[in-house]
Amino acid sequence: MASHRRPKQQSRARVTVLTTAAAAAVVLSANAANAAPSEKLSKDQVKSKVDKLYEQAEQATEKYNGAKEKQQKLQKEISTIQDNVARGQQELNKLRDGLGSMATAQYRSGGIDPSVQLFLSSDPDDYLDKASTLDQLSSQQVDALKKIQDKQRELAQERSEATEKLKDLAATRTELGNKKKEVQGKLAEAQKLLNTLTAKEKAELAAKQQRADRSSSERVDLGDAPPASGRASAAFAAAQAQIGKPYVYGATGPSSFDCSGLTSYAYAQAGVSIPRTSEAQAGIGTRIYNQSDLKVGDLVFFYGDIHHVGLYAGNGQVLHAPHTGAVVRYEAMSDMPFQFGVRV
Fold this sequence. Notes:
Blueprint: H1 12-34, H2 43-109, H3 114-120, H4 124-194, H5 199-218, H6 230-240, H7 259-269, H8 278-281, E1 286-288, E2 299-302, E3 308-314, E4 317-320, E5 329-332, E6 338-343
Antiparallel strand pairs: 1-6, 2-3, 2-6, 3-4, 4-5
């Protein structure tokens, strides 16, 4: 008689594992089938994103410039205070030495009771002269003590001020480093996008940029607007001499510039010192809100946060250092959101 045995069943755990794996495989297959392939950005899309990154980099650049200027100012102030403290300490040491000499002389002359000294003196008149000198020394001693106290208070105040400025300097250096990283990060991100383009697309964008740089200096019509002043005219001429030089963040010339670096450099050549950053430059002189009232050499500011500045060139044109990858050139003011002008 044949033996009928029930087939051996797989363990429940093994069935569960196999079922789960199969289900996962089905899900992955479905996802793979439904997933859209990553789309490559077009040349125009890349340029748009890169332009935005360059704008963000310039915003960070102006903050970087402000932190750098503050750092330099603090370093000068701290150096001045430290020099004052060193000189003050020397003065204090001299006052203390002088007081010590007076105290020694007074001790030596005051070792015997004054009435006994007078009685024993062979020359009473001479003794009385000496006694008068001792009284004078005592008065000088009081004055010296007051001077020492005043000098100690002054030095303590200056040291306290130096300590606070050193703390501010450390914070400013941290901010400077952070802004530098931010600028470099934006530029690296822009370069990464540009690297996704084909060699042909890169060449087309480069050619377009070169045409913009070249045509702005060769064929721009500046009209016949008068200069704001003799100094403004000289500043504008100095800026014109920089046409074709590259934009580099944090640069103030003479071989490269960022936007506020160009304007501050131009006015410096005209003998006028203006602040370093666009934000600070916006706070000087007389503001002009109507473009028709602008004159050649006026500072002109763009974007809501005033992170870009150039020089009015006439006929609706601005002479400026635009952004990374471009050079100092003329450009239509209508290409950017104009905010106001400033007559220095």
